[in-house]
Design brief:
The complex is a heterotrimer of chains A (about 500), B (about 300) and C (about 350). Chain A contains 17 helices and 20 strands. With about 500 residues, chain A is an alpha/beta fold. Chain A is globular. The relative contact order of chain A is 0.10. Chain B has about 300 residues and is mostly helical. Chain B has a domain at about 20-225. Chain B has helices at about 5-35, 40-60, 60-85, 90-110, 135-140, 145-165, 165-175, 175-180, 185-215, 225-235, 240-260, 270-290. The termini of chain B are far apart. Classes of the chains: A alpha/beta (about 500), B mainly alpha (about 300), C mainly alpha (about 350). Chains in contact: A-B, A-C, B-C.
Chain lengths: ~500, ~300, ~350
Amino acid sequence: MVMPLITLRGMYKRFPGVLANDNIDLDIYPGEIHALLGENGSGKSTLMCLLSGLYTADGGTIRVDGEEKRFRSPRDAIACGIGMVHQHFKLVEPFTVAENIAMSGRDESFVLSTERMTADIAALGDKYGLEIKPVARVWQLSVGEKQRVEIVRMLYHGSRVLILDEPTAVLTPQEAAELFKTLRWMAADGCAVVFITHKLNEVYELADRVTVLRGGKVTGTLVRGQLDTKKLVWMMVGRDVVSKYERDAVPEGRPVLAVDKAVAFNDMGMYGLKDLSLTVREGEIVGIAGVAGNGQRELAEAVTGLRRVADGTICLYGEDVTNFRPAEMIARGVSYVPEDRLGVGLVPGLTVLENLLLKSYQQPEFAGRWLLDGKAIRARAEKLVREFKIKVSSLDQPVRMLSGGHLQRLLLAREIAEKPRLMVVVYPARGLDVGATEAVHRLLLDLKADKTAILLISEDLDEIMKLADRVGVLYGGRLVGEFPVEEADIERLGLLMAGSGGEGGNADAVQV
Amino acid sequence: MSEQSIVISIFAAAVTAGTPILYAALGELITERAGILNLGVEGIMLVGAVSGFIAAVASGSCWWGLLAAMAAGGAVAFIHGLLTITLRANQVVSGLALTLFGTGLSGYLGKSYIGMPVPQAFKVEPLGPLAHIPFVGPVLFQHDVLVYASYLLVPAMAFFVYRTRPGLILRAVGENPAAADALGYKVFTLRHLYVVAGGMLCGVGGAYLSLAYAPSWLENMTAGRGWIAVALVIFALWNPWRALVGSYLFGGVDALGFNLQVLGVAVPTFFLSMMPYLFTILVLTLLMAKSGGRVVPPGALGLPYDREDR
Amino acid sequence: MPFRFEKRLAPTPFMTVAVPVASVALALLFCAVFLALTGRHPLELYMAMAEGALGSAYGLTETTVKAIPLMLCGLGIALAFRMQLWNIGAEGQLYLGALAATWLPLTFPGLPAIVMLPAMVVLGMAAGALWALGPAYLRVKWRVNEIITTLMLNYVGILLVNYFVYGPWRDPKGFNFPLTAQFPPAALLPTFGDTRIHAGLVLALALVALFLVIFRNSRWGYEIKVIGASERAARYAGMDIKRNMFLVMALSGAICGLAGMAEVSGIAGRLQPGLSPGYGYTAIIVAWLARLNPVAIVLVAGLFGVLQVGGYIVQTHGVPASVAAMIQGAILFFVIGGEMFTGYRLVFTGRKGAAATDE
């Protein structure tokens, strides 16, 4: 039998309030593609951060080629040939691709030699079929390209074990297929590939072996031949999962939101939205698919008054509200659950009570002309926490301390309490486990039943297919396809997301 | 004085008046490149100025003074590093504390040295044949050795920051510490290192005032130069060459005010003394207005780094 | 020994009180060591400072007198800091307030007190507000760093006052000293009995009460808190950030201007250079140590009044007054360093973790 390249025994890691890894054993063999399957918060990323030296284990041993190692920093892991591509890329955005790769430090010369670097990188890219532009600035790259830079960087400093944390989360199905091809090549070359995922189809498609984690513990390891969906789901979640929601047919209502030929710029001053038109009706969920960075943020912000629209109009119930201020949009019943929960939607340093007040502190029920009505505010907050089953130790606890799922509940509770006529939700289930995702989805469906118009922006095609009545695909700031959910299939959506079959796209994003 | 000699003397004075600001700006520049905002420059300069002066008096050598100023500057900057890097304190407040502490400390230490002559100051040493080049010679090459050293420091720092591997890592630590950390660079150690190095340069800036420019010790003798240096780093867009230009520009404004006074221009001295401060505001405003508010500092400037922050 | 910090899930109430107190004690200890190293007797020095500031009726009134401008400027600064607007121009705003307030009695010495004093308050506050609005405008319009602009205006403000007292406003009967003429009695703030404690104290305490309500219970206070904690979230919630920046800076500057008015009208009775020994800077420490809490500002201002008066007292012992500034700076260092220990726990990571896993 082949000796494992990596042996982990009894890995143990505690964060304040959470036991992230509880006595985990894992073997990784050369030439295999090993999937780490588990829900969000099951401890799979933590385990790999321990292996890559980013976190220090509170207990356990790591053996590389049978030899015990202690990793004090990623440098030690890198020296053992272990490289990790994190979910949030560890790239320096203003640097060029070559500079980012040079940081890896294989070439220890004092003075940087750009020419040699460039040649080395190009050669490496050719070998694994990874197209890469050494002189481009990282911030100009698409997500898929950034990921390639990360992979090339790991290969550049000679990684034998390549760890990828949820590598497909931000890719189109086609880009993902491309990535899988690269990974298989690398495995065939003798590397060990570990990829973290919570998607079963990826396990089927790619993995030689799969280890499932739940609640910081290993629940089992299966080899390719033994794969069984029901079993995997049970190992991962510990119960059955809804694959389809029961939904009442809601009669088509009046149009609530009507966007007509909207043009908006992104933070870099380039086109974020280009002539985008869109209608959302009462009781309808319109799902917007697309790879992140194709105008999702600009669309959500334009509709909620947070981003100026340079051209075109936005109407609410027929009233022209183009470039109204956020306060005026809120007053007209527009609620918004943003992508960045702790950065935009909530204030991490403030308490649960204060966060629940964010949208209503001017309403006569809770405040006079000058002063706040502390009693009424507290009473309502208590009611919301109870109704939406938000787990808090007290109303005066800073929201920073809440878990991802309860943060999202808190945010939704506040936005739903406003009784919105239009609800804009962006990536509502990102980072949530199966239970929390279901809870969030049910809240959205309840809202739909109350005849609220919902604009659902998501990168998760399954989520869109489960919830939406109509589906649109955003690419390069345009809506490149729009159809009833019954006519949508993953293949077709994927092609549109990648820019085939529609015009526009990143390539012609013009600086203005 | 002929018109030409006045112009030359103003330009030459711009260089000497700009040099302390230049050292301090370079110190702050390298600190900020590592992602740490140090608003204590004014305090560090004062501590550098007073300890340089005391050491020079005690030892009779301005070189010991210079060394003492660097050590003291590095030491007080290390307090800032300890607070902001290790203890993750608010960088703005810690910097302000450093300025207040440095002002008090230098006043306390320097009380009995006020008005005392320094036994040996850095003297003007014309730089061989270069000093005789018309115009350029008297403006650039008839100064003391610290000015010449700054001529070397600027290109050296620019080369270090942009063209060397440690410089690349320095920039990475300031832009995205998580990225540098993931590749195994010791973010905390590096930040401490550059904060101390920056403090040493600010100390030199202070020592230049007390051992070459004045040369004497006066309470609060920096008179806001440390703050001007902080503003200059923004104006310089974190580039050493632009810091050089900016420093001499400010030196020029300073020198111009002084020379106008000498020439007896009928503007009250108080208004002439205001010029560098108002000029700072003006320059900063012009820069921001021109760029439409899109001046991009190092990505992680002012943010504490915590590897396991979740 | 290797160690790291671990976030506490919630700071304990004991720690939130114990840590600052311990920090102040440590700062005094640190300075004592330093003073001993430079050849002083720290204990004697501290005793002399405390004795001078607290040991007599005169000392106590002087301490109160020094605490008034610290309180006022501290309140103004706390308001701006709560919104993460770094107004460190209190010193300049104080000088401008004094300058504007002085203009009235010099120009219209005959006004009755009932008109004179309120008008001086309004003028002082307006001038302080204007001095702060410049940086606010630059910040809102082009995102010019307000730390630098407010600070630069301190120097300009002081020079401006110097220009007037050395120039056009110099008292012709003043033996060529840089002083303005003495104010008429109608332009002097009333004092308590024959002490030097003036009505500025009443104004300061009234503002403390007002700020307490604003910060705790008002819509505006809530807006300031949210904007300070997260500008993006505030925009998302529909708050008008620019308007609040102007409002907060104006009020912050106005209160510092009021401090200047109180100094000329309550203490000196005339405008003179060196009007403030750096109250505007010391007040930054006061505000931060008080965690921007109005009531705590009163207490910390009192403590710093003691240090300020103590600093003057020890001069008679041949120790420079700047020792007070040094101690104040050190206290701030230790307190912000100590804040870490309320929010985090120190965890030593020695061999223990490894030993537990050796099977």
